[in-house]
Design brief:
By secondary structure, the protein is of the alpha/beta class. The protein contains seven helices and nine strands. Strands 6-7-8-3-9 form a five-stranded parallel sheet, sandwiched between helices. Strands 2-1-4-5 form a four-stranded antiparallel sheet, with helices on one face.
Length: 222
Amino acid sequence: MIQVQNLCVEFETPGETIKVLEDLFFELAEGESSAVVGPSGSGKTTFLNVLGAMLPATSGKVVIGDQDIAQLDEKQAAQFRNQKLGFIFQQHQLLPQLTVLENVLVPRLAGSWSENEEETRQRARKLLERVGLGHRLSHRPAELSGGEKQRTAVARALINQPKLVLADEPTGALDSETGDKVVELLLELQKEQGVTLIVVTHDLKLAERVGNIFEILGAPAL
């Protein structure tokens, strides 16, 4: 599913080149899950952004499925993200003016879909019922708890039926009990839907629950 070879990412600053990732290798089979851990500033989020076609690599090769990410132009990368990937962030990034149901449907607005709108709405409702929010469809983010917001974000990440879900510190803004429930739900849904899952986390207990652990070493780069 994912093959990363000799990945390097550098940022140019006045008078200095900062190497964030250097000669990184990573592989993950379809349907498997992996946690990415490492010290602060080691490049975990940068790595996730490269996998998500949001940041170009300086060198190396990144293949997801049969797609070489480096070969995508900006428009193709946006389409690839919308149709193949799901994202979960530490801060849920829900739109405050939209209802829970509307927030889950946001990825549909960004791309072309073969199904009609009502079919997508039905899937969104089923996902929200699955994450325990079937009774919150018309509520807005300000009316939700932190855990409910993140469960909405999980449903949103799965609405486009992605092959790969990328989660960046998905429990970082939650208390430990709520975070555990969100992780349990995410792993259940990952197995049920057969998606490949990569979770960036500083929490080793969470990393152990995810499955494979991939550690990025090195001194803080930024």
